[in-house]
Write a structure and sequence with these properties.
This is Terminase. By secondary structure, the protein is of the alpha/beta class. Helices cover 30% and strands 24% of the residues. It contains 21 helices and 33 strands. Strand 13 and strand 14 form a beta hairpin. The C terminus is likely disordered.
């Protein structure tokens, strides 16, 4: 037959040879692509496959992870780890780390990846400015992406499907999550309030459900913490809390950077932590890290230490839940050196706003917006200076730098001698080592006249001539410091919220102006929940839109938070408040007239808790504003007041430790309550109390009956602890490492 012609068949084979060869090669290539890629070490894979373009980072080129990033990436490949939390500062490289993790699990392994940001615009910005740029700049990853069609973009930013069938999904954390899943799930900026708890819990609780379809999923949660209770701090608190341990170049012991930052001197032992020195211009000119061995570690050794380090767990945590922590001390960014850390710490001493920025962005720790006053009048009176510290005839300590005063006015009741209309005035000293001292508290409400051997009290209205004379007399007085210096009051702030017109007129009298009296008001914008700084820029007065008068508007929330923090510090530690012996009991009661209460989740405010109107508490806030106003433009005074002597700080810490160690030997009584079923009868029907016998027996038990009919045996036993228990040892060690907001160990 014609089709059996050998010559014809040979010609046909020759014509189809090229197509057959191409088909076989394509089939072989397709078969190879059907075989799953073998898992690789993520840092090694990233170096060979991920290219960072200049549009993403100025450190462009193949992506080489640092030691900390390598350790976190390898945790994703640990079969026993299901969740990794990363508590960090800003600019720690977490965005590149997330992009690499998504590219590896989707482009290399062929599994779906899921990414969450705070809002949709944030998620799209991550895709457009980071992830997509990296994918297109990396040849091996760009080849896996589906090309755009003639009609336009084939895959949108929220769902990008690779040629291997896996997808990258980007979502916002503030919207419902449905019909999405992923083997690798990353949540960025988890410290933001938009991730706060909802009906189903925080965002992590909801996202965990997206992982149930995989046998070995991984959840990566990272972010800079904001306040206590934010999502990232909650998750980290349930982890094993790993810190980066590195070999000390002096003792070779594995140490971690403690978050204890404060001024120091190289020739003095100020404990373990980062120390710095500022020059006359206020610039940090030297910084180092003090190891427990006594060696001073220079920042030039930081890179070598980081490369030789490893994460070590400091807690047990939930099974499969790992938490990693690094601070600015670990940063290799030239804009966040140890000198920058020292400068940030010093700036944090100014007000609440800069303090939160320091705690969040430098220490990478959640900030407690304002701890409530945890002291009572007895605790406050422990800070009263005795006759040895403040002898008779001496008004303020020898380290006093300058004096200011504050006045709060109370309308009271005219015919009530216990609560008359009055002004209350506090005179205080700003001392070295950032301490405050209360010299006197005056109640200005009446004149005292003596006639025929009788004393008569004559009341007057605040802001009249008699009121002004008494205030001016107090301001004209010279106060004796412990070293013999005579100090006068530099500034006095007067609250004009009550009887505003008369109060403002008093403040503008020539006699008031020459004595430094200024009218103040609480900033009205705080009423809407907005937080403002203690003082306006440069401490300038601002005109009221309603009355046209000039006032010094202050942020009362900042003032209350700072005063509450200082009241809890025992004197004479740096940052504490001490008191003169002349102050009455009622003064201390007025200091604790308000408490911080939470009005709704995440929102708290200061409220009056009793009948005490708290003029001493208000005067303390106004005095703080006056103290800061004096040094706004006076660098010399500011440096003298804020400078903390390391020896004083260390002495305060040692005194605290001595108190804690002394409390480990306690002799007292403990009470055991044994609750029995409700009594069926009373009197003689009740069981008699048990009696002990002999010298070794416990003291007799006493019987008590509660209002609900429960019978309780109250047993007192004498106990004596003469050895330091492991719990006490651990507590003492925590105190040694404790880092206060003031940076001096309190």
């Amino acid at each position: 037959m014609r089709y059996e012609d050998p010559e014809l068949l040979a010609r046909c084979a020759e014509l189809t040879e090229i197509g057959a060869d191409a088909y076989l090669k394509a089939a072989a290539l397709a078969a190879a692509n059907l075989v799953p890629s073998e898992p690789e070490d993520i840092p090694t894979w990233a170096k060979n496959n991920v290219i960072i373009p200049t549009s993403v980072s100025d450190r462009s080129g193949p992506y080489e992870m640092n030691a900390i990033q390598c350790a976190i990436a390898r945790m994703w490949q640990d079969p026993f780890i299901r969740q990794v939390d990363y508590l960090k500062i800003a600019r720690a490289g977490a965005t590149l780390l997330i992009s690499t993790g998504m590219a590896y699990h989707t482009g290399h392994l062929g599994f779906d990846s899921l990414f969450f940001e705070r809002t949709e615009p944030d998620a799209q910005a991550f895709h457009d400015k980071k992830l997509y740029q990296i994918l297109m700049a990396s040849p091996s990853l760009a080849a896996m992406m589906r090309p755009d069609t003639k009609a336009g973009i084939q895959d949108g930013w929220s769902d990008r499907i690779f040629r291997n069938g896996a997808s990258l999904q980007l979502r916002s954390g503030n919207k419902p999550i449905k019909s999405i899943k992923g083997l690798f799930v990353a949540i960025d900026e988890a410290g933001d309030e938009k991730y706060s708890k909802g009906p189903e819990g925080n965002i992590v609780t909801v996202v965990r459900g997206r992982l149930q379809e995989f046998c070995a999923p991984i959840l990566f949660v990272c972010g800079t913490p904001t306040v206590v209770g934010c999502c990232i701090s909650d998750e980290y608190s349930r982890s094993d809390k790993r810190h980066w341990y590195m070999p000390c170049p002096h003792c070779q012991e594995m140490i971690r950077y403690e978050p204890d930052v404060r001024p120091g001197r190289r020739d003095q032992d100020t404990g373990t932590g980062l120390r710095y020195v500022r020059n006359e211009r206020g610039v940090v000119e030297d910084s180092w890290y003090a190891c427990a061995c006594g060696g001073l570690i220079e920042e030039t050794s930081k890179i070598e230490m980081l490369e030789a380090g490893e994460f070590r767990a400091t807690d047990i945590g939930e099974p499969g839940h790992v938490g990693c922590y690094t601070s600015a001390a670990h940063s290799t960014d030239p804009q966040m050196t140890w000198r920058h850390v020292g400068a940030n710490h010093h700036a944090s001493l100014r007000n609440e706003k800069t303090r939160q920025a320091y705690v969040n962005l430098t220490l990478a720790q959640p900030y407690d917006p304002a701890p409530p006053i945890l002291v009572d009048t007895t605790k406050l009176q422990e800070n009263v200076l005795d006759a040895e510290a403040l002898p008779d005839g001496i008004d303020c300590p020898e380290d006093a730098v300058y004096l200011v005063a504050a006045i709060d006015n109370q309308k009271g009741v005219r015919d009530d001698p216990r609560n008359p209309p009055r002004g209350e005035m506090t005179v205080m000293a700003a001392c070295r080592n950032n301490r405050w001292h209360v010299i006197a508290h005056h109640v200005i409400s009446h004149l005292v006249q003596e006639r025929d051997g009788h004393t008569k009290r004559i009341g007057f209205d605040p802001f009249d001539e008699d009121y002004a004379d008494q205030v001016w007399d107090i301001l004209d007085k010279e106060y004796v410091a412990g070293d013999g210096r005579l100090l006068k009051i530099r500034k006095c702030l007067v609250d004009v919220g009550w009887q505003t017109e008369a109060a403002y007129k008093f403040c503008t009298l020539p006699g008031s102006r020459e004595r430094g009296i200024l009218p103040i008001r609480g900033d009205t914008t705080e009423r809407a929940g907005r937080r403002v700084t203690l003082l306006p820029t440069n401490g300038t007065l601002r005109k009221s839109k309603k009355s046209g008068r000039n006032y010094l508007w202050i942020g009362t929330r900042d003032a209350k938070d700072e005063c509450a923090r200082r009241l809890a510090i025992p004197a004479p530690a740096p940052g504490s408040i001490s008191f003169s012996r002349s102050l009455p009991e009622t003064y201390f009661e007025g200091l604790i007239a308000e408490r911080l209460v939470e009005t709704k989740p995440g929102v708290s405010t200061w409220v009056q808790t009793g009948s005490n109107t708290g003029e001493p508490w208000d005067c303390l806030q106004y005095w703080y504003a006056a103290k800061e106003l004096v040094i706004v433009k006076n660098r010399r005074l500011r440096e003298e007041v804020d400078a903390v002597d390391p020896t004083v700080a260390q002495a305060a810490i040692e005194a605290r430790l001595a108190t804690e160690e002394a409390s480990t030997i306690v002799e007292g009584a403990t009470t055991d309550l044994v609750v029995q079923p409700p009594l069926q009868g009373s009197g003689s029907d009740a069981d008699p109390p048990l009696q002990g016998s002999g010298s070794d027996a416990d003291p007799p038990e006493q019987e008590a009956v509660s209002s609900s009919g429960l019978r309780m045996r109250v047993v007192e036993r004498k106990t004596r602890r003469t050895e330091t228990t492991p719990e006490v040892t651990s507590r003492i060690e925590r105190i040694r490492r404790r880092q206060s907001r003031s940076g001096v160990g309190w």
